[in-house]
## 1
Amino acid sequence: MKFETRAVHAGLSVDENTGAIAPPIHLSTTFGRDEASQPIGRHTYIRESNPNQERLEQAVAELEGGEAGLAFASGMAAGAAVFEALEPGTHMVIPDDVYYGFGVAAQEFCNKWGITFDAVPMEDLDQLSAAIRPETGLIWVETPSNPLLKVVDIRRITALARQADATTIVDNTFATPVLLRPLDLGVDFVVHSMTKYLAGHGDIMGGALICKEEHRQLVTVLTRTLGPNLGPFEAYLTMRGIKTLPLRVERQCQNARRVAAWLSDHPRVERVYFPGDPEHPDIETSRRLFPKDLFGGMVSFEIKDAGRDEVFAFMDALKMIVPATTLGDVHSLVLYPAISTHRDLAPKHRARIGIRDNLVRVSVGIEAVEDIEADLDQALKQ
Ligand SMILES: *Cc1c(COP(=O)(O)O)cnc(C)c1O
């Protein structure tokens, strides 16, 4: 079956008792046992497993082509489970522009847990190779990156990891399995913030880890014991979102391509960052990695001669596009990295990773592209 069909049908079944097609939401925290004290069904207690979580876990595993899927209360909880499973003494390599939460987690906790790390620009394979040591156990990849949308060559990174006997993990939040299935390229783990594209409607927080069978046991023990699991209601809503994932993401990709090309010609725009831009330094990698004409729904751009005041005036003038932190929702969103996601970085660090004070990031929604462009245009003219 094709991906679009799987997205709609994953976890779909007729309820034996009622005939209901939409899955029931099971809020029960506990599940009955028979006279021999054996569980009547597959579940015993909500933290260990529950029917809504189980359906979602099967669905995300299927979409990513993994054997095991685990649902978490947030993307951070999903990623943290991998950190927690590392042995003391392990070294890891992370991107220097990793999602800020994972950067903070590495800074704050690795030392306490006896884990060391190097943060490198992942697109530079020489720097990555140089950072790998005999004790390197994990290589963390995030692609396209935030907010400059750099795309890295996953196949070459997994080849380096294999030589070093290191595990690889890809944060697939931005690409989604519509664009990229890292496990098919030899990656060991995929992590998602389902809060973004997978759920897609800006109304739930959730995360997922997908892996091969051989890694399931390690993470399952850890999560079912420490309890960062996703609740049944969030699992239900995420399943609902996943049914339209391919439709939404394809539309977001189309809109983003149009918006990126339009912005490139705008007199108030200095530079556009979009993985499908023929001028983008990673365009060849993007073309190899992603399906034809799909480059993601995120576009970043720099406003010509703008300082903070001008960027604030632009954001303030937007009438439809919502200034907000998140991404991947059905409606378009705009974010100012220098004062939000990247505000805690020292200005020098921000400059080194290329995040300038005139940079804004747009998460392009599914609206009519003409309306998105019209709103950007009137706000850029303020
Ligand atoms: C949002 C995000 C996360 C963290 O997910 P939460 O659901 O907010 O915990 C991780 N990685 C990326 C790329 C994200 O955008």
## 2
Amino acid sequence: MKNECYYDDYDLKENLGFDSKVVHGGLGCDPITGAVSFPIFQTATFRHRKFGVSTGYDYSRLQNPTRQELERTMAILEEGVEAFAFTSGQAANMCLFGILKPGDHVILSDDIYGGTFRICDEIFSQLGCDFTYVEMSDLDSVKAAVRPSTRMFFVETPTNPMMKVADIRKISDIAKANDALLVVDNTFLTPYFQKPMNLGADIVVHSGTKYLCGHNDVIAGIAVVKTKEMAEHFRGQMKSRGNGLGPFDSWLVLRGIKTLSLRMKRHNENAKKVAEWLRGHDKIKKVYYVGFEDHPGYDVNLSQSTGFGGMISFEVDSEQTAHNLLSNVNMILFAESLGGTESLITYPLTQTHESIPEEIRQKLGINERFIRISVGIEDPDDIIADLEQALR
Ligand SMILES: *Cc1c(COP(=O)(O)O)cnc(C)c1O
């Protein structure tokens, strides 16, 4: 079939630095009209001009130019072969685990995101897949969990919400030795700070809802792959499950990504200040922050990334202090989610990690005194002042 599409040959902009790549994306502007803001192709279907001639687009569940621009941008930023944009991080992970066959075994971080745990525990375990949750910062535990049927390793680093660091290169070696795939959920650090593909990951997934979009206004998910074969898997899953991101939401994420570098730099700076301040407060018992030099994963984190991100967890002195803090914050918003311009404070016990079994939560330390904060890009003095008055 003759392909008349202008959208298919794109310049990888390989010579640009990362901060330019986020601005210029895949094609950058519209190749036909020159529109600097990539158009929102709000269409369900595409006209074929004659028999045997196609623009390369048939139906938006399969391909849509705006979604493709986002996917190309993410493939460039994560240095993968292809990327796929889904209606949520959960949808991306549903397609990811769709790789599994009955009897396959997966090893995951023990304080994995609650929704990822639910996909494994409620959906894929029923289809005959097995899951083992281990402390990924402890390589001996990782090795001990391997079985002949181990097909995949799923890593978050730093983890949510305990901020544990896993050594991506070393886990990649274990995965390769066992002929298994390594998947990294790069939601927390984003490619601005960490590029898992270059450290041995086969697949990178994101909740695009968080830092990539960055404005708390879209739910989206991304999967980036290293091989054409894996790309065919995701294309097939998206086509069948029908969970590709819509054109307008794709455009919003693309728009968010333009400022990814600026935002991540600021989140990183603000979080450092807030973490230091929290550590000095008498009602705060423990602060979990990867940027502290005495954090057990500090060196490993810096060997594989260039920063710490904007996430901090901490334990206060009592359940009452925790409840007061959540009720009394003003500028900081008591809300789920993370990675946006606004600072958000969360209670993992009843919000993000409610699905995690009580016994695992206790072991990890997710208790009634445990709080997580996503440090936004506001004036850091205002974030600290708000925490100070709410802790009084
Ligand atoms: C939020 C989140 C997800 C799920 O993404 P949604 O966009 O909410 O579906 C997966 N992993 C991590 C680390 C997350 O923070």
## 3
Amino acid sequence: MTDIDAVRLDKLDKLDERSWQQRYQRSLMGVFGDPQELLVTGRGAWVSDSQGRQLLDMLGGIAVNALGHAHPRIVEALTQQAQTLGHVSNLFTSVPQMRLAEMLLNAAEAPEGSTVFFANSGSEANEAALKAVLRHREATGKSRILALENGFHGRTLGALSLTHKPAFRDPFGDLIGGIEFLAPNDTAALEAAFEDDDVAGLFCEPIQGEAGVQPLDDAYLARARELTRSHDALLVFDEVQTGIGRTGQWFRFQGVDADVTPDLMTLAKGLGSGVPIGALLAFGQTASTLLGAGQHGTTFGGNPLAALAGQTTLETIQSEGLLENARRVGAHIASALAGVEAVAEVRQYGLHIGIDLDPSSSSAASPAKSLVTIARENHHMIINATGDHTLRLAPPLNLTTDEADIFLARFTAALKDLPR
Ligand SMILES: *Cc1c(COP(=O)(O)O)cnc(C)c1O
């Protein structure tokens, strides 16, 4: 041991005297604003916080904790893998990496010739997809790429270029050129955009998550599939939030009442049950070879530890019947919420649930944001607001009916605490 204590362990040990809020503000960049709480432990759909409270977690780390907190199978798999082989670089491969790729291709019913690229996050999966679309744009001489208003694809520069929200983009000046935004579900605008035969690709979330669980219509998605196919454009589904069982299907596109199998699909959030991992699926031989040898890469992507987290997540969703559970428990929540007076609309796809509050039900400037605080402080429950009147739920896929009933009781009680 060196005698110079550069990280100041002696001093850090005394920092306990400060509040966690002070420690956070003095050491973490302010991009997220102040955290709501300091969380300490978790088990299933429950987390305990710095005050020792048990909170019902109906957000699941924003659709990430597909199996809840500390699922025994994830704990066991990661412990074993950490003892065996944690990281190998992409100059080598590992069994978990290949096995997870095979499982994803099977779950997606991908045709012969389909392949997977592993990344570490949703943004990075979308970066890879965008680079593939840029390769197609180069090869075809087309100039435009389409994405949708209210969509969200991430914060890295490529993913941000595909994200419409001005508050996210404008601070950074020029982003990647040639990307245009269309109004979601506007079929006439979509058809008009393809008239010039100049579109290289279309990016969309089949259900817009950050927009408050807003679905694209089946007919709109079917038309998008037809137009992209007939105009030699790539259809890219960002299923970072909707994938891995969230909507009660392995992937949302499989729940659409038409064959809308995309050319490219991105995944992340629920894939690793909390371990960072993202993936790009390329459907068929042509999509699979858009990015050639040396044209993309990553240090960590698909390492054995992250890949085993993914593998164990998919195995557990299957063996515990969690697609069915997500559909059943989600429908139970939605039907109960439909009878709640302050609730104007519920959009429910498995355990991906958007709730619009009736604007006349409260005098608060942002009833949804007020309700997040009331729910946590008075009713010990984590929920999420995506707008002033819109809430989003994305609890673990193994949420039980009893836990759903606890949520419903606490939610209706929280609504009564909103200022009239
Ligand atoms: C969260 C999200 C992303 C970004 O994922 P990160 O892991 O935060 O980079 C991209 N697309 C969608 C639809 C998302 O919900």
